[in-house]
Specification:
It contains 8 helices and 8 strands. 32% of the residues lie in helices and 23% in strands. It has an 8-stranded mixed β-sheet with strand order 3-2-1-4-5-8-6-7, sandwiched between helices. It starts with a helix and ends in a 19-residue tail after the last strand. It is of the alpha/beta class. The chain has helices at residues 3-11, 27-36, 47-55, 65-68, 92-102, 116-125, 149-159, 183-188; strands at residues 17-21, 39-44, 60-62, 77-83, 103-111, 161-169, 176-177, 191-198. The protein has a single domain (3-112, 144-196), classed as Vaccinia Virus protein VP39 (Rossmann fold, 3-Layer(aba) Sandwich), CATH 3.40.50.150.
Length: 217
């Protein structure tokens, strides 16, 4: 089992309503249904991916995350998962906002473009990096919006999102929980996983009752 899948499996509670956005061939969704008995749904843009999901007995529709998530009602799911898909979206900011609209929590994983191997490739070779987390050459990759840990934290701040959990993966080792505020993690982490929710809005203060003036009879 992939280490990032293990961490996502740990974050999702049993029996939850789950939407896997960009679910590919359905490996993660099938794992969640088998291990956590979730009520799972998937959205996948590839016809081949949808066919593979249906062959596994999964409930998946063909759709584009950039345009079709608006069709889902508010808070229809407990979790919306975006696994290794954020960087391939045309409008990642908008999609992240949609995930939080349609689910109580969003689980997002992505490769960290701030990892030291990426930086080393750019500095020493002057070329776009190819690593385990970014295995394809620049002309063949589906990635169009690569980001670093710091970039993602800034986006969460802009969208008013709360980070409930964060984990780092490097070198094929098991995920480890992190405090994602330090610059060190931006250097050492190949992939990141976040569980996000909407920050509670501050309620307006209730004004004290107005006392009626004392009336003389």
């Amino acid at each position: 089992m992939r280490e990032d899948f293990k961490e996502i499996l740990r974050l999702v509670r049993p029996g939850a309503r789950v939407l896997d956005v960009g679910c590919g061939t359905g490996d993660l969704l099938a794992l969640l249904e088998a291990e956590k008995r979730v009520d799972g749904r998937g959205v996948e843009i590839s016809v081949d991916g949808v066919s593979a999901c249906l062959a596994k007995g999964l409930t998946v529709i063909q759709g584009d995350a950039d345009s079709d998530l608006k069709d889902f009602p508010d808070q229809a799911f407990d979790y919306a998962i975006l696994s290794q898909t954020l960087q391939a979206l045309r409008a990642p900011k908008d999609v992240l906002g949609e995930l939080i609209r349609l689910a109580d929590r969003a689980i997002v994983s992505f490769p960290n473009f701030g990892h030291w191997r990426v930086r080393l490739n750019l500095i020493t070779r002057g070329r776009m990096p190819e690593t385990k987390a970014l295995p394809d050459p620049w002309y063949a990759t589906a990635n169009i919006h690569l980001c670093t840990l710091v970039d993602f934290l800034d986006l969460c701040q802009e969208l008013g999102l709360r980070i409930e959990a964060a984990a780092a993966l490097s070198g094929g080792k098991p995920a480890r929980a992190i405090e994602p505020t330090g610059l060190l993690e931006n250097w050492r982490t190949e992939q990141l996983i976040f569980m996000l929710s909407r920050k509670p809005t501050a309620q307006a203060a209730v004004p004290p009752p107005v006392e009626e003036p004392f009336a003389l009879n």
